[in-house]
């Protein structure tokens, strides 16, 4: 579960951790549980979109679940639910 603020302050460290996890093994499906995210800006969208690209290049499906109303609205507006599954 992702927690806290997913903004430009946290995005670089999170990107590095996620990319390291993705590179270590092949996944068939990755679920991002957004239930603990209290704030997200365009950097957070960039993190999700970038991981979607990396995962889909390896044949992995990406899902997003549990986003709070405000975060869910940002994800919808960015069009991420059009390319990922919402759980």
List the keywords:
three-stranded parallel beta sheet; alpha/beta; Transcription Regulator spoIIAA; 5 strands; 4 helices; 87 residues; two-stranded parallel sheet; single chain
Q: Please, could you describe this protein's structure?
A:
Helix content is about 55%, strand content about 25%. It has helices at about 10-25, 40-55, 70-80, 80-85; strands spanning about 5, 30-35, 35-40, 60-65, 85. The protein is an alpha/beta fold. About 20% of the residues are buried. The strands form two sheets. Strands 2-4-5 form a three-stranded parallel sheet. A two-stranded parallel sheet has the order 1-3. The chain has a single domain, classed as Transcription Regulator spoIIAA. α1 (about 10-25) packs parallel to α2 (about 40-55). The radius of gyration is 12 Å and the shape is globular. The chain has four helices and five strands. The two termini are about 15 Å apart.
């Amino acid at each position: 579960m992702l927690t806290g603020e997913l903004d430009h302050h946290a995005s670089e460290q999170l990107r590095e951790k996620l990319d390291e996890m993705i590179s270590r093994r092949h996944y068939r499906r990755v679920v991002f549980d957004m239930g603990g995210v209290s704030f997200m800006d365009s950097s957070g969208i960039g993190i999700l979109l970038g991981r979607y690209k990396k995962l889909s290049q390896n044949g992995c499906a990406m899902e997003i679940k549990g986003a709070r109303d405000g975060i869910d609205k940002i994800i919808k507006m960015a069009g991420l639910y059009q390319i990922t599954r919402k759980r």
